[in-house]
Specification:
The chain is mainly alpha-helical and 111 residues long. It has one domain (2-110). It is built from five helices and two strands; from the N terminus they run H-E-H-H-H-E-H. It has helices spanning 2-24, 34-58, 60-65, 70-85, 94-110; strands at residues 28-30, 89-91. It is globular, with a radius of gyration of 14 Å.
């Protein structure tokens, strides 16, 4: 039960974060409608829950060598995977991808 509540909390935070990132960055484009925001948040939550631990395990030596700074690259990869899996989400430029992933990474680390 605790695991499901944690996933639900991450989903709610991700949907609010995606809405705010869409308003803050002009290259962070989400198709109109609340369903598009929900789908993007679901995909982001599932990628964070299932793919991120595998990526952290694979890249653990790089994380140790860089004293944790390689986590930034992991957050960029997670947002890129979410962009690739979600047709409603479009990130137009690399700086937008980097800044949005940093913001999402900070927000998800707090939770």
């Amino acid at each position: 039960m605790h695991f499901l509540l944690k996933i639900l909390g991450k989903f709610l935070v991700n949907i609010v974060s995606i809405i705010l990132l869409g308003k803050f960055f002009s290259d962070f484009i989400i198709a109109n409608g609340p369903l598009s925001y929900a789908i993007a948040a679901i995909v982001l939550t599932l990628v964070n829950v299932f793919i991120r631990p595998v990526l952290k395990l694979i890249t653990f030596p790089f994380i140790l060598i860089t004293f944790g700074l390689f986590n930034i690259v992991l957050h960029i990869a997670i947002l890129y995977i979410t962009d690739a899996l979600t047709p409603a989400l479009s990130i137009g430029s690399t700086p937008t991808l980097v800044w949005a992933s940093l913001i999402l990474g900070i927000i998800n680390s707090i939770i």
